[in-house]
Specification:
Layout: E1 2-16, E2 20-22, E3 25-27, E4 31-34, H1 41-53, H2 59-62, H3 75-88, E5 92-101, H4 111-122, E6 129-134, H5 140-143, E7 147-158
Parallel strand pairs: 5-6
Antiparallel strand pairs: 1-4, 1-7, 2-3, 5-7
The protein binds the ligand Nc1ccn([C@@H]2O[C@H](COP(=O)(O)O)[C@@H](O)[C@H]2O)c(=O)n1 and 2C-methyl-D-erythritol 2,4-cyclodiphosphate.
């Protein structure tokens, strides 16, 4: 069995009146993340962790932020496309562990739904998808609610000699 780890990071600006989608959940908040897609930083960090583990470049390499196909797209679809890229190389996902960093809103009540959205989208057990959150203790751009950050690590595996 071949096992690899991957790491991903993403950051998006927060702007008044924008939708705020994290882990496929639409959060009620005065501001939301701004990007070319739905700007779901959590899913983008997870995509980058998966691509990094498989040495398949990064999310912007596969889904360019100038491509009209991805304008406003749900990042759940980008995650599904990412998992297909890994699948083509024979990789399956062991587990994902992610960390959100934002002052507000509180993420804890939404974590089970985020885990379910991800698990359903890429056919994993919710038990293998960990999501956590922290504030930045009111410091810096996160503390001023100008941006939201996510980090993710993952483990992927395949039988030795498989593709
Ligand atoms: N947006 C957030 C931030 C934090 N949490 C939860 O609150 C706990 C305390 O956060 P601190 O940054 O003050 O340490 C944290 O461990 C999370 O459980 C949250 O749900 N949403
Ligand atoms: C997801 C993509 C593509 O729509 O755009 P954004 O939503 O701007 O997100 P980012 O994390 O900057 O990078 C990847 C992009 O190419």
């Amino acid at each position: 069995m071949k096992i690899k780890v991957g790491f991903g990071f993403d950051v998006h600006q927060l702007k008044e009146g924008h939708p705020f989608v994290l882990g496929g959940v639409n959060l009620e908040h005065h501001s939301g993340a701004y990007g070319h897609s739905d700007a779901d930083v959590l899913l983008h960090a997870i995509c980058d962790a998966l691509l990094g583990a498989a040495n398949l470049r990064d999310i912007g390499f596969h889904f360019k932020n100038t491509d009209p196909r991805w304008k406003g797209i749900s990042s759940i679809l980008l995650l599904q496309e990412t998992v297909k890229l890994l699948d083509e190389k024979g990789w399956s996902i062991g587990n994902i562990d992610a960390m959100l960093c934002l002052e507000a809103p509180k993420i804890n009540p939404h974590i089970p739904q985020m885990q379910k959205n991800i698990a359903d989208a890429i056919h994993m057990s919710q038990e293998d998808i960990s999501i956590k959150a922290t504030t930045n203790e009111q410091m810096g751009f996160i503390g001023r609610e100008e941006g939201v950050v996510a980090y993710a690590v993952c483990l992927i595996e395949k039988a030795s000699g498989n593709r």
